[in-house]
Design a protein that fits this description.
One of its GO terms (cellular component) is MutLalpha complex. The protein has 233 residues and is an alpha+beta fold. Helices cover 42% and strands 18% of the residues. It has two domains: 88 residues, formyl-coa transferase, domain 3; 110 residues, no CATH class. Helix 2 crosses helix 5 and helix 5 packs antiparallel against helix 6. The two termini are 31 Å apart.
Amino acid sequence: MLQNHSFVGCVNPQWSLIQHQTKLYLLDITKLSQELFFQILMFDFGNFGVLRLSTPAPLYDLTMLALEMPENGWSEEDGPKEGLANYIVDFLKKKAEMLEDYFSVEIDQEGNLTGLPLLLDNYIPPMEGLPMFILRLATEVNWDNEKDCFRDFSQECSTFYSIRKRYTVEEAPGAQHSVEEPGSSGSSWRWNVEHLLFKAFRTLFSPPKHFTEDGSVLQIANLPDLYKVFERC
């Protein structure tokens, strides 16, 4: 279906419409993009290009930003945030060689993030999610088991790269859409969805069967049935 679809449009950052043959489908882009990036991470493991950050991002600052977010799970029992941030910086610096070799995540000797994996040409992940990604690399990845480490990293990275409603800005109704350069920081999420993600869905993606059962892919109309309704009106 995804290989031969016609893109209809974006409903919002989570949902998009496509047509396949005579049927109209509603797709959960958050779930589909996360699965797409997970598959890319698993299948192209160790062969990623590098997405260079225009300005190195201090891991300490990113971690402190994440620790200020309510969803991080921090409590006073965990100790001072500054101490945790310093620990995470030191921890990730020790993993820097492995992160670069396997995942193209680059960290310099000063504890700055300088590069991320290039998973899809011209695609830049929503950088608003970067602080939580860095925090979860240190807290949610099992670094003691190689297989678990690769799986956990791929899950966290694919979540970070996915289109998520909380990290997108809805355009005002009737707003004029200018033509953006591919991959530019100004590229809208709508452009990324239509021209980057759906292109990848056609050629790089093997959707799991459970997507048709868990609400990720919903058939909402059959065009011949709609025509019959219109004929009766």
